[in-house]
Design goal:
The complex is a heterodimer of chains A (119) and B (366).
Chain A (H helix, E strand, L loop, with lengths): L1 E2 L4 E6 L2 E6 L1 H7 L2 E5 L6 E2 L4 E7 L3 E5 L4 E6 L1 H5 L3 H4 L8 E4 L12 H8 L1
Antiparallel strand pairs in A: 1-2, 2-3, 3-9, 4-6, 5-8, 6-7, 8-9
Chain B lengths: L9 H6 L3 E5 L2 E6 L4 H10 L1 E5 L4 E6 L3 H5 L14 E7 L5 E9 L3 E6 L4 H11 L4 E2 L3 E7 L3 H8 L11 E6 L2 E6 L8 E7 H12 L4 E3 L2 H10 L41 H10 L3 E8 L10 E3 L9 E9 L4 E9 L7 E6 L2 E8 L11
Parallel strand pairs in B: 3-13
Antiparallel strand pairs in B: 1-2, 3-9, 4-7, 4-8, 5-6, 6-7, 9-12, 10-11, 11-12, 14-17, 14-19, 15-16, 15-18, 16-17, 18-19
Helix pairs in contact in B: 2-7
Classes of the chains: A alpha+beta (119), B alpha+beta (366).
């Protein structure tokens, strides 16, 4: 698993990358009450704001971590946003991307590096 | 947070694992480890303890009744012994300077004002009322929820006999507690002014009761919003009148046109006119369709496309008990419950239905 400075995690599954938010991010957000996911078959570029996540406290965006195509989204977190707090690294994945150039993931942090990053 | 003040319960908040944030010049607990959502639900299911010591506590001599009446559109002279009323300081334009609680405690009036307005309120009072004393040696706690009565009565026998908006003095371990049966959650509950010397011990004694959990400012906000209660600086301010704010119920007959002490408060011309003719706009409740919250600042439109905004959300968020988003907005007064309007969220106009407030039924013990 790789981690971004925007507190997302990325897991490679074949030619797909599964993306979610970290436990640290879900704790900082507080209880999640609303999630809006991108349309599937959307081409996204790194840094695009593609998801909205709202907690009891505030709204935040989730950015596309790399260039690629959205091929699957997790409707379970739309129906039950609380899943993002309960299981952020597992059942509460956000979307899967088809990524041509997996080299884009090279610069991201390992788990240990991310732990240092959040201090 | 070097320049922020702390309440007497600061160390207890840290011990309880609170996340502290700056609020109205104080370092206050926004949430405890339970989290905003569960704290909210706990308060509605059992009892929540809130530290509201940042609020201003003020004593006025009972002789100040007439002088205070000259500042608020509320019947203070008719306030019975050991009863409390909601009031607001108004300005000459009919706007609201702050909202407050006034209790008749026999030889004095006890007034509780918002933390953020405390200094301005004290200056305003001192300019118009003789004998104003700020209470600086007492904490203020709120115990709210269906189990509040049972939990408090174990420590303070006698509170169970109080009704909504009653006030009284009770003893606890030799200290005088000034208790009112009121609050800011829509639930039955109490607000308790307790001497600093025993405040932490008293808070611990309440927290030792099985029904009671500490609740932070985050849940306090979602609880009051579900109850349809105004937050000063957001839902009411100097640009809104009490009538526009839907607070006409707080203006008793004695201060209205034809009443025994008609008018005689700042902004009476406008406020009495709005009572007679109806205001142009009114604070209304909104229930957005779907789950996306409409937060403060969201502009409201009459139609899904085109046109100028007809209002703006003053408070909005997700209601954990109603399990849906909710908002308040000032909208043209001719709109009625059931009408659909549109809130612009992230560039999209989303439908919302105008509803009567509160969003969550209140459970005051009347």
């Amino acid at each position: 698993m790789k981690f971004t400075e925007e507190h997302e995690w990325l897991r490679v599954e074949g030619d797909l990358v599964v993306v979610g938010i970290t436990e640290h991010a879900s704790e900082a957000l507080g209880d999640v009450v609303f999630v809006e996911l991108p349309e599937i078959e959307t081409q996204v570029a790194k840094g695009d704001e593609i998801c909205v996540i709202e907690s009891v406290k505030a709204a935040s965006d989730i950015l596309a971590p790399v260039d690629g195509e959205i091929v699957e989204v997790n409707e379970a977190i739309v129906d039950n946003p609380g899943l993002v707090n309960e299981d952020p690294l597992g059942a509460a994945w956000f979307f899967k991307m088809k990524v041509e150039d997996m080299g884009q993931l090279d610069g991201f942090m390992s788990e240990d590096e991310y732990k240092d990053f959040i201090g | 947070m070097a320049d922020l003040m702390r309440t007497g319960l600061y160390d207890l908040h840290l011990e309880l694992g609170a996340k502290m944030v700056p609020f109205a010049g104080y370092e206050m607990p926004v949430q405890y480890p339970l989290g905003v959502l569960k704290e909210h639900l706990h308060t509605r299911a059992a009892a929540g303890l809130f530290d509201v010591s940042h609020m201003g506590q003020v004593i006025l001599p009972i002789a100040a009744v007439a002088a205070l009446e000259a500042l608020v559109p509320v019947d203070i002279a008719g306030l019975a012994l050991n009863r409390q009323r909601y009031a607001m300081f108004t300005n000459e334009a009919g706007g609201i300077l702050d909202d407050l609680m006034v209790a008749n405690r026999g030889d004095h009036l006890f007034v509780v004002v918002n933390a953020a307005c405390k200094e301005a309120d004290l200056a305003h009072l001192r300019a118009h009322v003789a004998g104003v004393t700020e209470v600086t040696d007492r904490a203020l706690l709120a115990l709210q929820g269906p189990a509040a009565e049972a939990a408090l009565a174990r420590l303070v026998p006698g509170v169970a006999a109080m009704r909504f908006m009653d006030v009284g003095t009770f003893g606890w371990q030799g200290a005088d507690l000034w208790i009112s049966r009121s609050g800011y959650t829509g639930e039955d509950g109490f607000e308790i002014s307790v001497p600093d010397a025993v405040a932490v011990d008293f808070a611990r004694a309440l927290l030792d009761q099985p029904e009671v959990a500490p609740i932070g400012l985050g849940a306090r906000d979602s609880l009051r919003l579900e109850a349809g209660l105004c937050l000063y600086g957001h839902d009411i301010d100097t640009t809104t009148t009490p009538v526009e704010a839907g607070l006409a119920w707080a203006i008793q007959k004695a201060r209205r046109t034809g009443g025994a002490r008609e008018g005689g408060f700042p902004g009476a011309d406008r406020i009495l006119r709005e009572l007679a003719e109806g205001p142009a706009r009114l604070r209304m409740g909104l229930r957005p369709e779907g789950r996306a919250p409409m937060r403060e600042g969201v502009e409201i439109f009459a139609r899904a496309e085109g046109g100028a905004p007809i209002g703006r959300v003053t408070s909005g968020g997700f209601g954990p008990s109603i399990e849906a988003p909710m908002a308040m907005a000032y909208l043209p007064a001719d709109l009625t419950p059931g009408a659909t309007v549109y809130g612009e969220v992230r560039g999209k106009r989303l439908p919302a239905t105008i509803v009567a407030m509160p969003f969550q039924p209140t459970t005051y013990k009347r």
